[in-house]
Amino acid sequence: MVGHSSSAYERELRGLLEGQPAAVRAYARALPPTERKAFERLIDRPFLIIRAAGSFGFDLVALRREYPFPIEVKASAEAVIRFSAASGRANEQLEAHQRAVQRVGLAVLYAYRRVGLRGSESWRVYSAGDLPKTGILRLILRELPTVSRTPEGNGVLRWDEGMPLSRFLNRAITLMEPPEGTPVG
User: Fold this and answer.
1) pLDDT (average), residues 63-69
2) What's the CATH architecture for 7-175?
3) 20 to 30 A from 116, CA-CA: which of 4, 75, 84, 135?
4) Domain ranges of the chain
5) pTM > 0.85: yes or no
6) In angstroms, rounded to a whole number, what is the distance separating the alpha carbons of residues 39 and 20?
7) How far is CA 102 from CA 27, 70, 110, 132, 143, in A?
């Protein structure tokens, strides 16, 4: 199964990335207390989110002055999403996304929402395609797990392999913060 209809989950992720206080604080409740404050930095350091959904377009594009992230949103109650399901449409989409971002030196992110998960963080993040050769995106994405492939070359998202959203965003925000004592603005 490729996953559930993701429009509600797109809105949820959008609210988090836009730093909507209620959404960020609600999500942060599932995090260990030591990680909540770091995640809540999204309220003051949000992304500009553009909904870009289309047949083979990205679901969302997250923008900051320093970097953009084209994002594809997937959701499932299962621990594995196989892109070969649904006539392979998700696999064709993966290939199209990889070609598109490679041409401009970006990487597409896959955000996997585990439906029905209680008591822990419900989003995982993966990259698809080659890392940019240089720049801040390379630093941010180099530790991000990639979309797995079957021996036949089909994409697979395995929940246990993904990076928790809070860890990824903490890394992305921290890398762009000025050193202590540097005036902001």
Assistant:
1) 89
2) 3-Layer(aba) Sandwich (3.40)
3) 84
4) 7-175
5) yes
6) 12
7) 32, 12, 15, 8, 18
